[in-house]
Design goal:
By secondary structure, the protein is α/β, with parallel strands linked by helices. It has two domains: 192 residues, 3-Layer(aba) Sandwich (D-Maltodextrin-Binding Protein, domain 2); 203 residues, D-Maltodextrin-Binding Protein, domain 2. Helices cover 45% and strands 16% of the residues. Strands 1, 2, 3, 6, 7, 8, 9, 12 and 13 form a nine-stranded mixed beta sheet that branches. Helix 8 crosses helix 9, helix 12 packs across helix 13 and helix 17 runs antiparallel to helix 18. It is globular and about 70 Å long. It starts with a helix and ends in a 5-residue tail after the last helix.
Amino acid sequence: MRRLVLILLSLFLVVIICAGNLPEVTLFCRAGPEAYGHRLQVEYWNKHLAQKYGFKVRIIEATRADYYTYVNNTLMAGAKTPDILESFSGFTALYGKSGLALDITDWYYDDSLFPYDRNDWLPIAMKLVTYKGRIYALPTDTNTYLLFYRKDLIPEPPKTWEELYEVAKKFTKKYNPNSPTMYGLAFYGRKSESLPMFWYQIFRSYGGTWWYDRPAFDSEPAMKALKWVVKVIREGLVPPDISTYEYMEILGALQTGQVAMAVQWDAAYPTLRDKKASPLVWDKMGVAMVPGVWTPEGIRRAHSAHDQMLVINPNSKYKKEAFIFIAWATASPEGAKIYAMAGCSPPRKSILSDPEVLKKFPRFSVKLPGLDKWGYAEPALPDYPEMKDILNTYLAKAWALEIDPETALKKANQEIYEFLRSKGYYK
């Protein structure tokens, strides 16, 4: 009997020692809502699944300032850790061409490693992590713009850009002294990754495309889109410092009741519905798809989409373990729902339509059909970030009324063409 007790005690000690010595996979992510969601996932994994799969996960949170620069520099330096890095879908083509992120295509289709419903992804989300038919990440959070509007003032949200202009004018004191808001509208104006993505929605809903035989950023749809923006700014339907507006400025304009409507990333919804964070408007905020353009077939919209995505460091010692974790975190009903209930937006149709999730985050009832039908990706070019920066510069100048729309787009298009030609895209 004593011998049996000693054997059992020895086995118990072995289990404890082994549990403490499990390999540890590191997850590097941005501080903010995404990090909060990932932290809850990591806590759950380490408590309930680490023993089953044979490894633990440790989360490392970094400041948002210059975050992506740090991620890319880390990958370019060939560091062996972190094992998993949260990155941005604008870099998918770069990762695919350069090998900075692990090609996970074969593992993605291996049912022994990824036993989940691949048809449950929003198609646009998987498109954003794919380059030339190969998969370089799994999407963890797919975002798009929504039209936020004061439902106590506006019974039906405007469906087209022309209607948006008219409603914005109605709720601008310059044109309607009785307006309860100073301005009718707010949107992105500061030079940032979000500025072109806002403009793309107007451009593409007017029928625009990225290229004809050359870049098409000075095409008729492009001109219509930029002229619409400049008209709204010039007529004062937006705050006068709109050229400085980014996420926080738009959020503040809605929270303070300064504007009646705004085109803003859907991630702002939880804050605007929080009674403590937004006491003036928390119960007055509605959301709708972004406006579009009437066509003979009905309204044509365009929803900008980008992924926060989890990439695997190709130099990691624990590549297969890293894949198992990101598959669980992004695609399992368990992991994806933890992330969603934390206020994030996993691109899984079953999660975005889950009654419990919808009760807490009703914006998904608008976001899901918007992305499913109208979502689109930015150009999948390794050199796209530099190309986008050229466009960004000229759009920001037009927003600031420093340059007219025609000149802005012609100069931008020519510089983009010259840049792409220097990279070998044109002979």
